[in-house]
Design a protein that fits this description.
Chain lengths: 311, 372
């Protein structure tokens, strides 16, 4: 155990944290946007699976990782239109529709995967990393922090964009109003339906992108049910972030590290059963929820559809 | 206003029944058609596929018995979900409660049935299963009761932990030394739940039917059921009529978990006698859909669970023949749930147009209806 804090261990932990944390970051950012607008998107995991599958297939046939990621984004977008129509336009229950979407997505991706590839799992080439010249030279940290595929930096940039949009634009103000007091937004002459629809589409796109990242960049293959609860961790991260993008980033990175802890431990010769590894992030989530239960903040109108004139 | 609902337009007896039944069958047909389209797209013959399901799940003597056997755990789980959902507690973590209870029962089962007299051993194991299921809901229950934390998330997190913990137990302390595949020791066949005379259906189905009947009775005829429904319809009103909301939330959550644990006990003690590592029948979310399709009415779950038991037993066979995964049925169930929300919406609109009255408590059971 003495070599726990060696540079190999740290580097593995940090790069693993980024690798595993990226989908959580994208999903968490997306969920934060829709939660702020008052829609609890329980179907996020399903949107990620759709994005993961579609992205993988596009990347496999087009031989382009970027087209694949874009395909995943589009698939997530399409999946979220179901939620837009059912939950925002028709005002149906967000939890029931979310679960229905999740179950459908789980089934559909599994069936399509088997129909297309049988029991083989074709593999993609790994995505080229972008080495940032000087910074990547920092011992231990540099190689893991500044030698990542370009899409990782795009994800980090999205945090800044989300922060800016929510904090400093009228669109952000509308989003927050749609979640806190939709009546006020309506009275101000802005369509609650349109605002929430946009928010959900953003969520779906980011969730789809996160799923595509998992299959294309993270794993290089698509396996049914591969998101394994990442979407739900994303929802928890969004809840604990209290609507602030920077906290989504920190949360995603921390949970990503808890996922990669086992790999890092194996590198220094500590063996942990796979089931413990799978369990760890969820235990971490529960501990975080128990400790910060009072801190988690959700918008006032979260989960309730907006019906004009109702109280 | 509230008590007027449903009384305004007198309907013919059979007509009143036709509505809800149609609203359940419609989405099922739509879901099957949509599934058939996907089968066509993947180059399979949907008629042959659905024919296989019926042939194996319904039209063969062993198939029917398997389907009825499968109904036992499903009905118990449905009973558990109804108790929670009626109180507006979203216990989505059924799979974790189920698998953990299954692991504990199969872990202690072989030892216990060897020591205790036959009947007593089974009773103890069933109670143990119910206890495990109930205990696994405590964290989400307390987080919801005390802090108002969304139980959809917490119970799901507990599911992921529970599934992996069950695997750890099966691969660790409960692992059988007699097999190379990680699994628990096997409870001898003659020590399992007895079959109904002349069949290969174990008596668990009777427990399940009694449980469903009991839940129906409690929910519709007792003050406890009424308190749960009040809590579910409007927590603030529940406080004002003097209900201890925190306690009731925890109690309802634990009862729900206990039924789900019992379902696992009955499935292990009736069918398997052991658990293999990584076994997960994924009943939880499927039943979520069925229970909603039954509109949280315990008796109505019986035909729907029967329907699902047939397509899940027959579907396994059909899917293997078509070279597709069992998850095809999962997708059909998801689609059925989606279509159900739509038909509910259409029906609710029609009703509102007909009565022009504020929606009553019945509407609260409808997805999204409580907010309208």
């Amino acid at each position: 155990m003495s070599n726990l804090l060696t540079s190999t261990f740290l580097a593995a932990l940090i790069s693993g944290g980024i690798l595993a944390g990226m989908p959580l970051l994208l999903a968490g950012l997306g969920e934060m946007v829709s939660e702020r607008a008052g829609v609890l998107n329980i179907g996020l995991e399903g949107m990620m699976l759709m994005g993961g599958y579609a992205g993988f297939v596009v990347a496999l046939y087009s031989h382009s990782h970027w087209l694949g990621l874009f395909g995943g984004l589009l698939a997530g977008l399409v999946a979220s239109t179901v939620m837009v129509i059912f939950c925002v336009r028709l005002g149906l229950d967000q939890i029931v529709v979310g679960i229905a979407l999740l179950v459908t997505a789980e089934g559909i991706t599994s069936v399509l995967q088997r129909a297309q590839f049988g029991t083989t799992y074709p593999r993609l080439d790994s995505m080229a990393a972008l080495k940032i010249p000087v910074l990547s030279g920092i011992p231990a940290l540099g190689e893991s922090l500044f030698n990542q595929p370009l899409v990782v930096y795009v994800g980090l940039a999205l945090v800044a964009v989300a922060h800016w949009v929510l904090r400093s634009t009228s669109m952000g103000l509308h989003l927050r109003a749609a979640g806190e007091k939709p009546q006020a937004l309506d009275a101000a002459g802005v369509s609650v339906t349109a605002t929430r629809s946009v928010a959900l589409l953003v969520t779906g796109s980011l969730g789809g992108l996160g799923g595509a990242y998992m299959s294309i960049v993270g794993a290089g293959i698509f396996v049914p049910f591969m998101t394994h609860g990442a979407g739900f961790i994303g929802i928890v991260i969004a809840m604990l972030s209290r609507g602030r993008a920077v906290w989504v980033l920190i949360g995603a990175f921390l949970f990503g590290m808890s996922v990669s802890l086992s790999t890092a431990l194996q590198l220094v010769g500590v063996n942990v059963p796979q089931d413990v590894v799978n369990m760890l992030p969820f235990v971490a989530v529960l501990v975080a929820l128990v400790i910060f239960a009072r801190e988690a903040y959700l918008p006032a109108a979260l989960g309730s559809p907006y019906v004009r004139g109702s109280r | 206003m509230v008590e007027v609902e449903g009384e305004v337009i007198p309907r013919k007896r059979w007509g009143a029944w036709l509505g809800p039944v149609g609203q359940s069958i419609g989405p099922i047909l739509l879901g099957l058609v949509a599934g058939g389209i996907l089968l066509l797209l993947t180059g399979r013959n949907p008629l042959a596929f659905y024919g296989d399901i019926l042939k194996r799940g319904l039209f063969s003597s062993s198939g029917v018995q398997d389907s009825i056997t499968r109904m036992a755990p499903l009905l118990l789980m449905a009973a558990g979900l109804i108790v929670a959902f009626r109180a507006n507690i979203w216990n989505i973590g059924g799979d974790g409660q189920f698998l953990l209870a299954a692991a504990i029962v199969s872990g202690f089962g072989p030892g216990l049935v060897a020591v205790l007299p036959a009947g007593l051993g089974l009773v103890v194991l069933c109670l143990l299963a119910a206890l495990v299921g109930a205990l696994w809901t405590i964290i989400p229950a307390l987080l919801k009761a005390v802090y108002g934390m969304n139980e959809v998330i917490t119970s799901l997190m507990m599911t992921f932990v529970g599934v992996n913990l069950a695997n750890l137990l099966i691969k660790g302390p409960f692992r059988s030394q007699k097999t190379s595949v990680p699994q628990t020791d096997v409870i001898p066949h003659d020590k399992l739940l007895p079959y109904l005379p002349g069949t290969r259906i174990h008596v668990g189905i009777l427990f399940a039917l009694v449980a469903v009947g009991a839940v129906y009775y409690v929910m519709t005829r007792t003050s406890f059921g009424l308190r749960l429904s009040v809590l579910g319809a409007n927590p603030r009103a529940a406080v004002h009529v003097g209900i201890d909301v925190r306690r009731l939330t925890v109690v309802a959550f634990m009862i729900s978990g206990a039924f789900i644990g019992l379902a696992a006990g009955v499935e292990i003690l009736g069918v398997w006698g052991y658990v293999r590592a990584d076994w997960n029948p994924n009943f939880g979310l499927t039943l979520f859909a069925l229970v909603f399709l039954a509109r949280l009415n315990a008796l109505a779950t019986i035909p729907l669970v029967g329907f699902y038991a047939i397509i899940s037993m027959g579907g396994h066979y059909a899917a293997r023949r078509a070279g597709l995964p069992d998850d095809f049925m999962l997708m059909v169930v998801g689609l059925i749930l989606l279509f159900m929300t739509l038909t509910e919406y259409v029906a609710a609109r029609r009703e509102r147009r007909a009565t022009r009255l504020v929606a009553g408590p019945k509407a609260a059971l409808r997805p999204g209806g409580a907010h309208e």
